[in-house]
């Protein structure tokens, strides 16, 4: 170095000065070791989390992933937690190891979109089935095998995902749970200050400004020089001052209970379609809209020689529109073959945009689907023939068999199977008219959730492996039957497999002739 002299060995005083250098080196090395020990401790904690999850999965992989909390934990660990772990492996050897596992193509990693989807699915289940936040965090869901408890970090991630979706209601629920848990943790899995900041802002967005101010004061007590908290505090104080001024100027208003405001949620009205849909999904009972004598069970042959030796077991679930269940219409072997053929082709299910006519993915339909032709396997052709014999309809103009798998929180919100007049290009390319009828095979039992519900009829059909539901979507006049609007409830536990056969108008003229009135 310029100006430096390398002759310290010539005088004792210079050697004594080196002791200061040596002391600085000792401190520097100690700081480095402390930093490395902290880094390694973080890696060890992450490794322990991965190990616990791996051990739980190893006991029964299929059973493990059917629990929605487990599914979220698995996706989070392979996204957010792995991202932290790989960043901590900063040495050349560590970076090479990360590259070996992530770029070799041997292993599949979920991405941020998967993490968001898993979190939103869990929140959807929480709302639809009214799951308590604390119980959910403990891994307790009624009727479902328990999962490992969520850490403060896991709860924080659910809150963060809610915040990113501008869902401040769930942000408050999960950040509060994270705060409660981080205070009890010996080894912290989340930053208390960060939790407080998210919680304060979302509490304010929910209308509880006073509590937001209290949380911000707690944050400032922990970190007085926090970059954003002082500005937030002034903002909340100004908002409270304006509210107080407004109250003094308007004696006619009763002051609003801020604690109640802080818990507000854009939940559906109980008697709205959405509210009824969720109540049906939970299995709530409604006064029947039919007479018991109209619900019958019988063996159905339809005059078909195919059904003489083994008639279809028909159970009427609703008289008008007539919705029926046929029991034991698919064998285990047939269902296994259909699933096996469909699995390699499963893709995110789409819906048709009624304005543009284009197919697109939508948050109100979360599932994966594939289409199977009769020519692909004898089982597909056999199942189609059986459906023809039972319904009396021709499958010549029917759509291919659609196979659907609903995963974590998988659902399909209320919809019609038929195309309405305002829909653009609906089924025009097929040239076979509208969807006259729906046949729905249930190919798995679902431990919890996953019902098919008809909100206007107050009707719930629970999945029964091997059974099938059938109904006409159109009146005999060709007009759509608005009462057939239905939905697939979110899957709370397990995996739901179904397959649909949609029949079209063309080819059914003699089987189901037109009526003379609109609602025939």
Automatic annotation (TrEMBL):
Record keyword Lipid metabolism present: no
Main location: endoplasmic reticulum
Annotated ranges, domain Fe2OG dioxygenase: 397-505
GO cellular component: endoplasmic reticulum lumen
Main function: Catalyzes the post-translational formation of 4-hydroxyproline in -Xaa-Pro-Gly- sequences in collagens and other proteins.
Gene3D superfamilies in alphabetical order: 6.10.140.1460, q2cbj1_9rhob like domain, Tetratricopeptide repeat domain
Recorded family membership: Belongs to the P4HA family.
The protein's name in its UniProt record: procollagen-proline 4-dioxygenase
Region (Disordered): 246-269
Entry coiled-coil feature ranges: none
GO terms for MF: iron ion binding; L-ascorbic acid binding; procollagen-proline 4-dioxygenase activity
EC numbers: 1.14.11.2
Entry's localization field: Endoplasmic reticulum lumen
InterPro entries: Oxoglu/Fe-dep_dioxygenase_dom, P4H_N, P4HA-like, Pro_4_hyd_alph, Pro_4_hyd_alph_FE2OG_OXY, TPR-like_helical_dom_sf, TPR_P4H
Keywords: Dioxygenase, Endoplasmic reticulum, Glycoprotein, Iron, Metal-binding, Oxidoreductase, Vitamin C
UniProt cofactor(s): L-ascorbate
């Amino acid at each position: 170095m310029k100006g430096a002299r390398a002759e310290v060995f010539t005088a004792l005083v210079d050697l004594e000065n080196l002791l200061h250098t040596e002391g600085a080196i000792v401190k520097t090395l100690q700081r480095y070791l402390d930093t490395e020990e902290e880094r390694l401790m973080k890696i060890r904690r992450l490794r322990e989390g991965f190990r616990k999850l791996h051990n739980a999965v190893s006991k029964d992989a299929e059973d493990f992933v059917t629990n929605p909390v487990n599914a979220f934990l698995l996706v989070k660990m392979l996204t957010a937690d792995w991202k932290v772990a790989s960043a901590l492996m900063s040495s050349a050897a560590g970076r090479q190891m990360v590259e070996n596992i992530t770029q070799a193509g041997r292993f599949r990693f979920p991405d941020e979109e998967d993490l968001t989807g898993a979190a939103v699915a869990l929140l959807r289940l929480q709302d639809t089935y009214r799951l308590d936040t604390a119980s959910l965090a403990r891994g307790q869901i009624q009727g479902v095998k328990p999962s490992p408890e969520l850490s403060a970090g896991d709860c924080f991630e659910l809150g963060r995902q809610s915040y990113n979706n501008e869902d401040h209601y769930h942000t408050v629920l999960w950040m509060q749970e994270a705060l409660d848990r981080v205070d009890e943790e010996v080894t912290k899995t989340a930053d208390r200050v960060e939790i407080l900041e998210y919680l304060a802002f979302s509490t304010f967005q929910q209308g509880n400004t006073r509590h937001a101010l209290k949380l911000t004061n707690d944050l400032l007590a922990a970190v007085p020089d926090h970059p954003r908290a002082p500005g937030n505090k002034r903002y909340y104080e100004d908002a409270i001052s304006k509210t107080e001024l407004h109250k003094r100027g308007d004696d006619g208003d009763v002051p609003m209970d801020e604690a109640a405001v802080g818990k507000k949620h854009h939940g559906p009205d109980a008697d709205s379609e959405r509210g009824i849909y969720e109540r049906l999904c939970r299995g709530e009972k409604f006064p029947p809209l039919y007479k018991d004598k109209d619900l019958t069970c019988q063996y159905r042959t339809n005059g078909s020689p195919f059904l003489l030796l083994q008639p279809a077991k028909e159970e009427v679930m609703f008289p008008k529109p007539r919705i029926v269940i046929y029991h034991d219409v698919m064998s285990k072997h047939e269902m296994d073959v259909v699933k096996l053929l469909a699995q390699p082709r499963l893709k995110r299910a789409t819906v048709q945009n009624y304005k543009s006519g284009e197919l697109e993915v939508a948050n109100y339909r979360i599932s994966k689907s594939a289409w199977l032709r009769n020519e692909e396997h004898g089982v597909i052709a056999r199942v189609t023939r059986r459906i023809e014999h039972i319904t009396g309809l021709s499958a010549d103009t029917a759509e291919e068999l659609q196979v659907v798998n609903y995963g974590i929180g998988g659902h399909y919100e209320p919809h019609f199977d038929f195309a309405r007049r305002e829909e653009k290009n609906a089924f025009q390319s097929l040239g076979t008219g509208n969807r006259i009828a729906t046949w729905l095979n249930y190919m798995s039992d679902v431990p919890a959730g996953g019902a098919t519900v008809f909100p206007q009829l107050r009707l719930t059909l629970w999945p029964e492996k091997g059974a099938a539901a059938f109904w006409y979507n159109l009146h005999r006049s060709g007009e759509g039957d608005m009462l057939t609007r239905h939905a697939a409830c979110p899957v709370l536990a397990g995996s739901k497999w179904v397959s649909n056969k949609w029949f079209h108008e063309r080819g059914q003229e003699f089987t189901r002739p037109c009526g003379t009135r609109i609602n025939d």
